[in-house]
Amino acid sequence: MPDNDSPPQLQFDSDSSVPEQVVVRAAQLRAEINRANRLYYLENAPELDDAEWDGRMQELLALETEHPSLRTPDSPTQRVGAPPADGFDEVVHPVPMLSLGNVFDEDGLRAWYQRALDYLELESTPMVCELKIDGLALAITYRDGVMARAATRGDGERGEDVTANVRTIRSVPLTLEGAEGTAPPVVELRGEVFLPNSRFADLNAEREEAGLPAYVNPRNSASGSLRQLDSGETAKRPLDMFFYALGYVENAEEPASHWDALQAMKGWGGRTNEWTRRADTVEEVMAAIGNAGEVRESLDYGIDGVVIKIDSIAIQRRLGYVGRDPRWAIAFKFPAEQAETTLKAIHVNVGRTGALTPWAELEPVVVGGVTVGRATLHNKDEIARKDFREGDRVVVQRAGDVIPQVVEVSSRNKRSADSAPFEFPDACPSCGTNTVQTEDEAVTRCVNATCPAQFERLLEHFASRRAMDIEGLGERVAQDLPRLGFISNIAALYNLRSRRDDLLELDKMGEKRVDNLLTAIDESKFRPMSRLMYALGIPGIGSESAEWLSRRFHDLKGLRKATEEELLSIDGIGPIVAATLVAYMAQEQNEDLIEGLIDLKVGARDETPEPSADHPVSGVTFVVTGRLDSMSRSEAQSRIKILGGKATGAVTKKTNYLVAGAEAGSKLKKAQRLGVHVINEGEFIEFMDAGIVPIAPGPVGNSDAS
Ligand SMILES: [Zn+2]
Predict the structure, then answer these.
(1) How far is the centre of ligand 1, averaged over its atoms, from the C-alpha of 476 (Å)?
(2) Active site (catalytic) residues
(3) Which domains does the chain have, with CATH numbers?
(4) CA-CA distance, 29 to 24, in Å (whole number)?
């Protein structure tokens, strides 16, 4: 595998007819595209937007076509994506998942169609037009009508086994309908997974609440959701899928046309896209593309073009491939909805979790029918990389329901002589505390728990229903209390009773409301530790991780002294959260706050026992694989969770038991390799129903396996 991070290799080709600057440019493009691919596919952190990526790819393709000696084996034109990340089993695609060539206008489309006809020596051949959904390509194999494996595209040859995660997507059939009769014994269905636009905002709101960085766009979030190592996490994401191709068929007759294949998949219960239509001429294709552009805004998923395929499978075979692109299909890409305007000012907001979020104040401009006056600049690194400066002419883009974003400095931009690079504040704009940026995160944060800008929102969050549930402490009171000098940190909330008379003088706060509020505050002292941990609003600690933490640490005293190592040994707590939590506890103002809460005995009550905390399954980590007879895997997983256990998707050293059903495959092998206890369905049911522990649980590797 080529090292994508290495600097461009300036190999001066023996072909001396290639000018030096062309060789250098091609190397530069390869390096940029490889880096962008890696960030996009492996880290879910796109660096180039689609138009930029396409632009570089087109330029590189053109250079390589003109000078074939430039086409190195590691050129991104020779590959589709990136190898799988650690954590998922690798899948070799029986039939490679290919990329598509792109065209951007009618001339390009006409040229593609004519090349195909010339090759075939035909006058015309029917085509099928499909919406090009902005998601993640998947290949799902069904054996005897039952879902056996789902894999991401990866680099086209090898993808990742995301079966457990894909099973959580409701629109993906677990068994094909008519399996007894019509579905082939082995069939691979391909399609696109996406996150509906309507759910994207909700997901980002939840992430913001948990102190996680927001996803840039729905596709990015679909990829992130599908590649969760814990399929339980994926299950919470409202992913959806459309099927658009048959990958391969074994021991059965293949449909004669792509259109027939779509109808067959639909008949088996696979969701296909209703918009799909046939076309016999380039004019009809162009009309379809025009229609797609019109309906685009009304769809609940992003599309970035239309895919045109030659319908006949026999003709597809004859046409074959050029390099990695099929000759029988092409993507017509829409131009992104963009407009140029002036970046008037760069502002930085401070959120509840202290995230410093830069945004652009723009000269209002219409983009895709909507007036845009402000747009996101994502983060500090993005501003530096693209060198956005106040006063610049910039390109603004919006797609669907996505927050408008500033894409780049306009190429026609002429900077004034006194323009200077934007300096992202080193200190919080509100409180002046030095900001923190963890290595793995693009987000810059103020970690001061008493930061005024954060405090009002933190207070509101602290009192919210899922946190400490303090009735009467809503948005307005959360603003008034700090602004009128009643409290400057959370702990002071519990001393408010001594200032009852002052509170009574607050506008609109009658005696009854004040007393109710004070009572509600007092009562909140007795919320379980998990609620308190969540309520503190520590970055990365949502209600779920707060619960995991509270199983180990029953009060703030213990948590305060926790080391990174201790935290990392808790299932579900990763290195970023562990480091953030330790940094949080070490911060002076936070130390005072925690000290204050301990003195006031907030959260000091014993945790109300979970309904099943004493069941032996509680706290035990399972992976369920293979086919179970008496229940589905999702049923098994939810039973584990109800009893206080953890059901994850990937076998790791932290796995206590692998529940192996029929035809268990790679996970069983991995469990055996790692020495994880393997139990059968019967043992599993006894464990669940009667609490009979099959064998002493792990962690393996430092116990019986060594
Ligand atoms: Zn601050």
Answers:
(1) 21
(2) 132
(3) 20-78 (1.10.287.610), 90-333 (3.30.470.30), 452-599 (1.10.150.20), 621-690 (3.40.50.10190)
(4) 9
